[in-house]
Amino acid sequence: MPKLKVVLIDDENHCNETLEYFIKRDLPDLEIVSVFTKPLEATEYLLNHNVDLVFMDIQMPKMTGFDILEKIPDAPFDVIFVTAFDQYAIQAIKFSALDYILKPVQADEIQLAVKKVLSRTNAKNRNELYQKLVNYIKSGAGELKKVSFPTSNGLIFISTEQLMWCEASGNYATLKLISGEQYQVNKNLRYIEELLDSKEFIRTHNSYLVNRIYVESYVKADGGYLEMKDGKQISISRGKKDELLERLL
To answer: Residues 6 or more apart from 89 whose CB is under 8 A from it?
Structure first.
């Protein structure tokens, strides 16, 4: 089986060197074919060569990793973004259900990201995710109302306006839509909370996140709970009660 052709793009050379070291040590099925510190040169290369996987920094001089991707329509390769923590960038990547690793990179995180990318074999689906990311960036973030979630069967795209409540179940979560549909997604509640608009969604408890527009009433009995539009009773933790009531008023 031929090795996957890999390109590394980061304006900081030591970051490329770290990635290169871990890839050569731990991932024998990958072959690094080129390394770039200048995003313009990297873009030119990607437009003219066939590669399978790109590790791409986000914040670089003159061009971001997002800019590179925008200049390559129907990108024929997979991407793993590499970034120092940046809330906007992370939200954009999560929104699009793409993959990333945080700096300083760790060997196990690289291996996990590669495994996830290689399991996504549908090129059409991959390009839809890239386009979703580009649209999100162009919109200035927060404008788009559909969010991607991974499930055991693939991806679902849910309108946040239709999402009524989320319930934690270990590393998974159940999402309930106003239509009555329910989905189990392969993300925990903390991940989902970071992804959704904090103005609309409220964490009531370690196990629950609710869309405030579907809260029908607050009931004081039994320590206090919310009754949702579908009749579900959502627990309220003691530590979150004051903040929650203030936001609902």
So the answer is: 58, 59, 81, 83
Residues 69 and 180 in one domain: no
Residues 6+ apart with CB under 8 A from 58: 64, 65, 66, 81, 82, 83, 86, 89
Q: For residue 212, what is the domain's CATH number?
A: 2.40.50.1020
| Residues in the chain, overall count | 249
Residues 62 and 78 reside in one and the same domain: yes
pTM over 0.85: no
Of the listed ranges 31-45, 133-147, 208-222, the least confidently predicted one is 133-147
- Model confidence pLDDT, tens digit, residues 119-161: 765 666 777 788 778 777 766 654 445 676 778 877 787 888 8
Using CA atoms, how far apart are residues 202 and 51, in angstroms rounded to an integer? 43
* Residues facing residue 55 across a β-bridge: 8, 80
